[in-house]
Amino acid sequence: MIAKNRRLYAAVAAQAAKIVYERHVRIASQEALVALGVYGLLWGDFMLYMSRRRVEQRRERYFGFFAKPALVAEVLDCWVSSENSPSGQRTVNEWATKYVGKAVSREANSVTSQGVLRTANVRKTLIRKFTKEFDFANLCADIAHSCPTMTHVLKSFSTTTRQENHASDTSMAKKFMRLGASLLSLLGERSQQNNYVKSVFSLYLYASGAQRQIIAVLSRLGLCSSYTALVGSRPLEDMPKIQLSEDNAPPKLPSCGRGVGLINRLAINQRTRVRNIARTYELGHVYDNYNINYKTAEQTLGRRDTQENGTCATVFPLFNARREDMRTSDLLTSLDQAPCLSRDDILLSLRENEVLDEYLQHSILRIIVMHGGTSFQRFRDTIMKSVPSTPEKIPLHKTEVFPLPAMNIDESSTTGNADVLDAIFREVGHHLDSPLTWDAVKIVFGDQLSVSRQRGVTSDRTGHDNPQRTHANVVQGPGFFHYLMAAAGGTLETHFGNPHLGARDPGSLSNHNNILGRKPIVTSSMPPYRVTRDLIFVSLYARILHCLELVTECNSLEEYAQSVTLERLKEDAKKVLQRFANPQIVAELRQERKRSESELSRSNTANNATAKPEESTSSSSSQLAGDMVFENAVLFNRDALHLFAFTTVVREGDSGMILIMLKLYALAYRAMRRPRYSLESMTQLHNLLYIWPKPLRDIIMQNWVINPTGKPNAFVPVDLMQEHFIFWIKVIYGAQGSNASPEWLEKISPCIGILRELATQLNEALGSKQGNKHQTPELENDIRELIKSLRMHSVYSIERGRTIEGDKAQVPNVQAVGLNQIAEPLQNYNDEFERTRRRRRMTPLIGDPLIPRSYSPVVLELDGDNSDSETGSESSSSDDRSTASGSIDCDQQSEVVLEYDPSDLEDDLGEPQAAEEDLNFVFSLDTEDDVDLDM
Question: Among 77, 219, 301, 712, which residue's beta carbon has the most beta carbons within 10 A?
């Protein structure tokens, strides 16, 4: 009660004080006005007098008026309120508008003078600004901080009171970004020098595939730069050129001048950057051909459809590579010492077999937890963290890649490949005749045809030309993307079966393709690579899950998953591998069938005269052994698991596992009728085991797959990265109409990486959350249908006497067949290796020999990597390969104990010479999925 009375008394006292204050103000104001009138002065004269900058009035002016901001605001509000006269309001409004105009003009001048939106120094800052430091949100915040008055005006203009009081933080953040975009656009209209954001947006539009007309429309609205500013107004022949500087001299940026265009500046900057990097780091190189068809809508004389054939190349700094570990002299010495390749070197050692089995078992676990249903998801993180690895696994790092200008050189010949190599080395700043260039080994990657032609260049020029012109310091690294395509094509053809049999060959890929309702496949005209690989893998997923059902004898995998432990799951995965991916079981079944057929043949011959026909037929069918359907299905599991493992180890960057897969496919490619890839695999194995010095071998094994993102499980083959760039050049950045020319491709190709990076960056910052790749399709329905078919036909249950019709009934065991067929190609390879080595010691017509004649080779001591080979042979040791004089004898071949039964080989061989001719298989790379880096 007392507190209430106190509040009441206080309110009454405040009201009384206010009345007294207003009375005093009224009386004082009337007296002041009377005093001013006595002297003929107006109230405005007194206000002007008090507002002028005079020393004696500063104190009174501040403490009497401006010390109370609320009083100042109230006075100004009265001047613009309806209580003031219309003319008075208009006068104040006009002054305030002019004042705000001057204020925002000062803010704009300040931003322009700071140069934060300029690209005048584009030659020095373009790469850094446009690809690394462009952050639209931070840029908007910086501009808003530098232009508070204009920001407040725009915010007041675009925001209602309701929005300000009730809008969510997300909505206000979007509004703030739009205000920033408006500020940036207006600053660009104030000065053409403030064109940073417009230039970025024009590059983004071009990087996203926008046509010229779209860019022109948005440029007219002031949202981006013009198309001419983007591509330049000068003719291509008048564009500035980069001159090759002397060795050890940093490259100089050419003077660009006006009319060059943003893309040309970007390309020049990037090419100069590559040359600077080449002076600091050793580079890896990769190239591949491109074929672009230009269509003419109306053909006339001199205007018709054409096809441009050229070459695109990319370089990247080698990870963990030192120049002293890449000496050409060390390479040539090691090559001259190297023993020949034997079959023992291709076969897996006991330890490698154990590592492979462990990885295949983990691959089965991975398939189960990824495609077995939601109940298995609880094991996913544990299994994905326990991936087996070898000591040669590449450390996680990020690889920068730099596309080079496209070359109007056809690399479809040996001479063309030599020209390509020369052009690449010139582009990165290497003088071909310089000792510095010759002294360091150059590592070049590519597809099988390209690297074989590179070797052809060295072979043809050795003994005839100057050693520095033979490219003997160039070593060829493998292109695993093309290896994977060859493996996928071979697996498809091996297990495709006869499409006319349908369900009578229930385990064939052709039958599974029909069950899934996919487009028919003709093996003579291969579908795109992604289609082939996806068919193999979805069939493998269904088979693994079905085999898990058979191993566990459960009613459903859902019930099994709810109660199984991780240890039990690992044991069951091991059983799946031993029972349903074991070629030894296939060999035993086929041996049984062969014996039963021999016995039936003898029995039918002896009893043919006395036995009735129906009795003979019944007796024959009842005594048959083996099961072709089961045998083919088991071999498919083994081959598809190898392909799955090959794909995953490349993504993981495990070079030790990649080497194991290389040995497997050196045999399998030959049985799959890919002898060129078999030969290429043997060549790479020979290089890795004997020819390349250990430091060089380690460098190559740490760089034959690269990681453009720096994320785990994101390694990609080097040749896939090149195919990826070629795809974007052809689909997005290739010019149309009269602008289509090799000169345009040369200009745009160095910018591909930057343009893609910029597009991704802006999509993530400003676009909707769509991701950067297609959503993985749901395979649950596909897997369910395939499992249903496998159950119905008892594909993985042995039914003795079950056969398949036709000449493709029995799937060959590609490992056994390849091993049996490898002897003659291996001998031919070693003979050619010896001939080339002898030519290296010859004195050429120009210059000195690569290896002096007086040099007596000493056999390279091996580390014993194959000392525990399953054959137990020691013939690959240096003592057995050397004669008393120290020369190397490649004719001595070690005896090999076959892993498989010889009778199985006889059934699988067919015509040995048929495998010597490469099938003309070509996977088309038509879509982005075919060259997706996330394979």
Answer: 219
Which amino acid, residue 258? R
| Distance separating alpha carbons of residues 281 and 322, to the nearest angstrom | 8
Q: How confident is the model at residue 173 (pLDDT cuts 50, 70, 90)?
A: confident
Alpha helices in 81-235 (DSSP H): 86-114, 122-127, 136-146, 148-158, 161-166, 169-190, 196-207, 212-220, 227-231
Q: How far, in Å, CA of 193 to CA of 770, rounded? A: 34
Q: Which amino acid is at 300?
A: T
Query: What is the DSSP annotation of 377-416?
Result: GGGHHHHHHT----TTBPPP-----EEPPPB----SSHHH
Answer yes or no: are the C-beta atoms of 450 and 287 closer than 8 Å.
Answer: yes
Upper half-sphere CA count for residue 304 (Cβ side, 13 Å): 3
Cα–Cα distance, 265 to 240 (Å, whole number): 9
Residue type, 406: A
Q: According to the model, what pLDDT value does residue 458 have?
A: 84
Residue-wise pLDDT for 789-825, tens only, equals 999 999 999 998 899 988 778 999 999 999 999 999 9
* DSSP state at residue 254: P
Sheet with 402-403, edge to edge strand ranges: 402-403, 306-317, 283-294, 442-445, 474-477
Q: Which of 324, 242, 317 is nearest to 280 (CA)?
A: 317
Chain-centroid distance of CA 674 in Å reads: 26
Tokens of 872: 């137990």
Q: Which residues pair with 802 in a beta bridge?
A: 627
Whole-model pTM? Answer: 0.81
Q: Binning pLDDT at 50, 70 and 90, where does residue 922 land?
A: low
End-to-end alpha carbon distance in the chain:
81
Q: Say which residue the tokens 């704009």 belong to.
A: 108
Which 8-state DSSP code applies to residue 109? H
Q: Cα–Cα distance between 598 and 624 in angstroms, integer?
A: 10
Vertex 852 angle, CA 847 and 858, to 5° = 150
Spatial separation of the C-alpha atoms in residues 294 and 664, rounded to whole Å: 42
Question: Which pLDDT value is given to residue 112?
Answer: 87
Query: What span, in angstroms and rounded, lies between the C-alpha atoms of 346 and 666?
Result: 7
Residue 581 has pLDDT above 50, yes or no: yes
Per-residue burial over 806-832, b if 16 or more Cβ lie within 10 Å, else e, is eebbbbbbbbbbbbbbbeebbeebbee
- Which pLDDT value is given to residue 21? 78
Assess contact for 116 and 108: CB atoms under 8 A: no
Answer whether 671's CB lies under 8 Å from 817's CB.
yes
Q: What is the mean pLDDT of residues 401-421?
A: 89
H-helix or E-strand spanning residue 677: helix 675-686
User: How far is Cα 356 from Cα 361, in angstroms, rounded to an integer?
Assistant: 9
pLDDT at 218 over 70: yes
Given a cut of 60, whether residue 569 has pLDDT beyond it is yes
pLDDT at 933: 62
Per DSSP bridges, beta strands 306-317 and 474-477 are: unpaired
Q: Is 144 helix (H, G, I), strand (E, B) or coil?
A: helix
Per-residue pLDDT tens digits for 713-758: 999 999 999 998 888 887 766 555 455 677 778 888 888 888 888 8
Count CB neighbours of 400 within 10 A.
Answer: 14
Q: How far apart are CA 360 and CA 356, in angstroms?
A: 6
CB 400 within 8 A of CB 317: yes
What is the per-residue pLDDT for 400? 92
